[in-house]
Amino acid sequence: MRFFPPGQVPRITEHPTDTTVARHDPATLNCKVQGTPTPTIQWYKDGVPLKILPGSHRLFLPAGGLFFLKVVNSRRESDSGVYWCEARNQYGVARSRNATLVVADFW
C-alpha cells in the first residue's frame, strides 16, 4: 500500500499592498503563497488576467511577485489599476487582497 501525503489548499502568506510610484520607476507587487502541491499564481489587473508577452515591461517573479521594470502611464497604456493574485492547485484557490497601483506624474 502506497502512502500519498495529504494535499494542502493554497494560502496567501504575503498579500500585495497599495503602492504609489513615479512614472518610469520600477515597482514590485508581492504575492507569496503556500500549498501542496505548489500552487500556480495568476495575477489580475482590474479583473482581467494578466498576460506577460515577450519584451514586456512586466515580469512574473519566481517567488510569485509581479515586477514592473518601469511603470507606464500614457494614453495608450497605463499600469495604474487594482491588482490581485490568485493561487491555485487541485485542492483549491486562494485570492489575495486587492492592491491599488497608482502611477504618479511627478514633475
UniProtKB/TrEMBL annotation:
Stretch list, region Disordered: 1-25
* SUPFAM superfamilies attached to this UniProt entry: Immunoglobulin (SSF48726)
Q: Which residues lie in Basic and acidic residues bias regions?
A: 12-25
Q: Which InterPro entries match?
A: Ig-like_dom, Ig-like_dom_sf, Ig-like_fold, Ig_sub, Ig_sub2
What keywords are annotated for this sequence in UniProt? Immunoglobulin domain
Give the GO cellular component terms, alphabetically.
axon; plasma membrane
Q: Which GO terms describe its molecular function?
A: cell-cell adhesion mediator activity
Q: Which residues cross the membrane?
A: none
Q: Which Pfam families match?
A: Ig_3 (PF13927)
Please tell me whether the keyword Cell membrane is annotated for this protein: no
Please give a single GO biological process term from the UniProt record.
homophilic cell adhesion via plasma membrane adhesion molecules
Q: What is this protein called?
A: Uncharacterized protein
Q: Which organism is it from?
A: Phlebotomus papatasi (Sandfly)
